Amino acid sequence: MRDSLRTPSAARAAWAKLPRIKGQLKTAAKVLVVLVIFGFIFRVLHRNSGQIRDALERGELFLRWRYLGASYLFLFAHLVSRSLLWHLITIRNNAAIDIRKAVVSWFISILGKNIPGKVFLLAGRVYLYRKHGVGAARVTFCFMLEATSALVASALLLMLCLLLLDFPAAERIKPYQPALAVGVMLILIALHPRYLQRLVSFGLKRLKKEPVTLTVRYTDILSFVALACFNWLLLGAGFFLLANSVVHVDWRYLGYMTGAFSFAAIVGVLSVFAPAGLGVREGVLLAMIHDIMGAGLATIVVLSARLWMTLGEVGGAAVAILADRVFLRTGETHTLPTSKADRSAEARPNAGEKD
Length: 355
Fold this sequence. Notes:
Layout: H1 2-47, H2 49-57, H3 65-92, H4 99-110, H5 119-130, H6 136-164, H7 168-171, H8 177-190, H9 193-206, H10 218-246, H11 254-270, H12 280-293, H13 295-329, H14 340-347
Helix pairs in contact: 1-12, 1-13, 3-4, 3-6, 3-10, 3-13, 4-5, 4-13, 5-6, 6-8, 6-10, 6-11, 10-11, 10-13, 11-12, 12-13
């Protein structure tokens, strides 16, 4: 009798542990994938160590501080421009807060991509905006629109680079160009508010969040994509200068390396199992640029880009937070209204005042 009573309770205990075991297995699988990718990268580095030694002997591997400093200027310009694009998206969707707070919130939230699953990329922004009275559903939609604009812009840049440039590294990918063009066109059509409203409503319903009525126009969405292209160009120029700080890369590869880096970055972001696309971005980028400079030197550039990007994002977030605190200490309150809602909110308290 006792055994019959113990059996169901033991089964319930084992069933309760099942989700935790699944979570542990998923985490182990994610770590294994990242380790395999990095193992492949370091294997390439080891197999091409002879090329690296020869490059050192011939003076083809170096460190040029001017190029490195210039690359960071372009990286910071890219980060600031992205934060301003985010603020513009929130303005067009009636979700804007003070521009200074918006920039700081964006810089803090991008550090969340270093957390596996990249949940904090969105959750951090939702939390920070909720403190200013902006609902989670509207912030989520702005986040989705920002990510989609970056994805489409990256695909457009890569497609244009493959169309306009002619060198061996691009030839292998050119057969896939029609499929890429069709995909970009379908995404551009899907971005029309008529279709986007249905997609957003479905997504928010699945996330159990309140529905959002879109106020953004199609021309606004296309302008977001154009500005995202500009942001990728800034980042690509920075990456090209970084590469030239350690090896010599001909200027005719500037466009291709810009498209390659933006594409690798997007693939890294989409790989939710890897924190900050760790390993995934490096693998994709290595595959795309090794023909330009050789596998050994390309591996050094790829690993340098990881450190470069991480230091830039952490440094940018630190500067944004510090600047915000300095403004608070000096009592800086002269900020421009960011939207019609902000202007009406500022006007309300003075409506009943008399001179």
